[in-house]
Amino acid sequence: MRDKVIYYTDELNDDFAGNNIVQKKIPSNFVYVNESHIHRILSFILYNIIARPIAFLYVKLVFAQRFKNKKVLKKVKNTGYFVYGNHTQGVMDAFLPSILTFPKKDYIIVNPDAVSIKGIKTLVMMLGGLPTPSTLNSSKNFLEAIKKRIDEKNVVVIYPEAHIWPYYSDVRSFNDISFKYPYNLEVPSFSFTNVYRKRFFKFIKRPKVVTYIDGPFYVDKSLPKKEAIKNIRDEVYNSMKKRLNEKEKYEYIKYIKVEDDYAVNQ
Asked: What pTM did the predictor assign?
């Protein structure tokens, strides 16, 4: 895979996840927060006793992952907050936040794909999935769920690039729509940046991952709303960009921009 090249035309919308899932719309009556005692008990067991240990073993054994500057999260241990990361994996991006946010629970805003596969919707929701809404009513429930999780002093995780680009060694441009959440709820935000590095042992081709955490970034309410939201977005983006540019980039997969779809398919 080291010599693989991926061609793209649209940095904001191209997706290379390759899961081929037929996406279902999130209905108006979608339950984002299940308050039943049985559901909450099973969620606790599944998340803390089963999923978290598996997640730890996966990212450490497969990617030799380690954190840098994680101590900054202690500054806001008594409140809920948002974290934004670069989206360069499938399984790892689902697993890593649960290790990063320990002992808090993380809730990841996910594409409806995550709950479109028959039989796993309940599992995804128990593990903290928050699928993006498809209707006005589901949007209301979605926003209420985010507020509830933040009020519970948990963590909401967002991948603002939205689409998976495996092993991408830079940060893609992203809009500021998801940064309205920390503005509206007046809580801090952080960035976490997964950076790929060469292995010490050359025969292991898959790169290791170093995860840098930066922040906290706070809402500046002295600014007009639109400008304040953009300001948070820029702080997060610039922190990611800085981390990715600190050392020479390691391209496990090379991405090349072309001008049209025809060129991509050649």
From this structure: 0.91
